[in-house]
Amino acid sequence: MELKVEGRNLDVRKSWQDRIDEEKERLMRHHPGLILNLRVTIEETTSHKQGGYEVRLVTGVPNDTVVVKRKGDSVAPLLVEAFDTLGLQLKELQRKRRQTSKVPEAGGEIGAGFGVIKRLSPYESYGFIVANDGREIYFHENALKDLVMDQLAEGDSVSFGVTEGHKGPQATWVRAV
Predict the structure, then answer these.
(1) 4 burial via Cβ count (<10 Å: 0-12, 13-18, 19+)
(2) From start to end of the chain, where are the E strands?
(3) Whole-angstrom Cα distance, residue 56 to residue 61?
């Protein structure tokens, strides 16, 4: 993810930069692969009614841009509030995309099968299954039925439904066998 931080009418303090780096890491953990770039602008304003600072986050995501603006008297709390709001907006964006992708397209689910867990990334909430026919199938923890990521281990046998995702075969549901 490309990150650009700029200050307008002020110099960006090290404590602000550290906070931005922490928040960026948190976003990348919670939304892996979603954020393409992030621009953080901290501006000192001259209007007394608006407060002394404005924090603006402009985030590029596939096929969209998410913008968050916050105004106030102190930069550090504005950064926290802006990044929290951005996280909520990204979560909502992902939820809407999942709902639209769940609408059955010309046939919807293209099959079901059996396989074994090849690789798990529990902190990123996804994994891969090797189907009995040799295909590698991606799955997200939201596809798990009657179990959670912590109950799975590499080598476990599973059954699954599969559809064609944006980057290849993707499990629509996964159950332990």
Answers:
(1) exposed
(2) 2-8, 37-44, 53-61, 64-72, 111-121, 126-131, 136-140, 157-165, 168-176
(3) 16
Smallest CA-to-CA distance from 87 within 35, 18, 140, 15 is with: 35
Structure tokens at 75: 């930069």
| Residue that the structure tokens 């590698």 belong to | 136
- How does pLDDT run across 96-129, given as a tens digit for each residue? 888 776 544 444 567 788 999 999 998 888 999 9
pLDDT per residue over 22-43, tens digit each?
999 999 998 888 899 999 999 9
As a whole number, mean pLDDT of residues 71-98 equals 91
The structure tokens listed for 22 are: 């922490």
What is each CA distance from 146 to 5, 104, 176, in whole angstroms? 44, 23, 8
pLDDT at position 50 is 59
Question: What domains lie within the chain, and their CATH numbers?
Answer: 2-102 (3.30.160.100), 111-176 (2.40.50.140)
Token pair listed for 124: 């990123």
**Model pTM?**
0.55
Q: Residue 62: in which H helix or E strand, if any?
A: none
Residue 111 confidence (pLDDT)? 77
